[in-house]
């Protein structure tokens, strides 16, 4: 994929994330979609990744797989008319989304639980 294609893909991902944020506030969106949207948007805005980017190869898998799959899944549940409205609004506003430190704290807690569980499992009793 050329660099311009990557940039276009990244812009679309950012626009769709903002459109999902807008959809999460719409009363016409089912609660199941809102739950998925909250997880996707929180993860996208989190300053901390579930899999840190410095880990070779798999460090970027969350950005390349988890977010697009979550966005795709949420879009499938959102009514088409609502999704189109949110996309148009996201395109017009093109606001930057703030970092979500609450999601970052949750990811830190997940890592601490994983590390703690591993230490308890590996520690000889």
TrEMBL record:
Subcellular location: Endomembrane system
Pfam families membership: DUF1232
Transmembrane segments: 35-58, 64-84, 105-123
Top-rank taxon: Bacteria
Keyword annotations of the record: Membrane, Transmembrane, Transmembrane helix
Domain DUF1232: 33-68
Bilayer topology annotation: Multi-pass membrane protein
InterPro entries: DUF1232
Name of this chain's protein: DUF1232 domain-containing protein
